[in-house]
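chain below, 271 aa
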Amino acid sequence: MIHPFVLHRPESLSTALSLIADLKDETRVLAGGSELVLLFKMGLARSDHIIDIKRVAGLNRLEFDPFTNVLHVGPLVTHRLLEKSNVVKQHFPLMVEMERSLANVRIRNIGTLAGNLCFAEPHADPAALLLVYDAVVKLQNSARERRVRIGDFFTDYYQTVLEKDELMTEIEIPKVEANFRDTYARFCPGERPIVSAALLIAWKDGTCLEARFGLGCVGPKPIRVSECEEWLRGKSAEEIITRTDAIGTSAAKVIAAAKSSVEDFFSFLKT
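prediction:
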């Protein structure tokens, strides 16, 4: 049985932020609710007040800015909307691929990307990919707004830097340049991955100029594997293909169980 609560349905951002500031510890914010409602039903969470932000104008923004090459994702944008969006397909096809494999259709129809990030479930798909895209989240309260890089947003299992009086109002995802090649892979027996891996490589004349390698689900928060990134820089495609063991070994220093997955992950370079 869910603990009784007062439901608030603000229609403006200023009203929502005022409510969050006034209620703080007594309230939870509801966007999609795929995780929060489940916790309530299981008795693992309770709150005296729920702030439903679905009516707040502008929070469903999903827009690509061609001048800054940044995708803007509001906190009401669902996984399904990202999966089906033509704008996202055009500029971030890998994100569409990731969203398509996330959980199940029911969850994707309800759950939001912002809610997924704020919940900070360590075995979730989006964080590793957003990490290598250098995504930024906007956190706002009634007095100020701050921008936090996604790599600094997560602090521990189910913990983030989001303050009790703040709301995530946007996710900014920069588009990489045309010379980048990207891939994402997840390894799981069910709906939640046990390892997720995302890789961006910038190429010039067959040589790696820059590499961004992120791992998710291998600890309390997603990580960039700097040792792998450094090893990749300056290498030709042929060298990388023949030395995937070196990449797997360095990633295994982060978590031993990731070694075989990382080696499989790099097989995309052979195609």
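The radius of gyration is 19 Å. The CA atoms of residues 120 and 158 lie 4 Å apart.
thats it, cya
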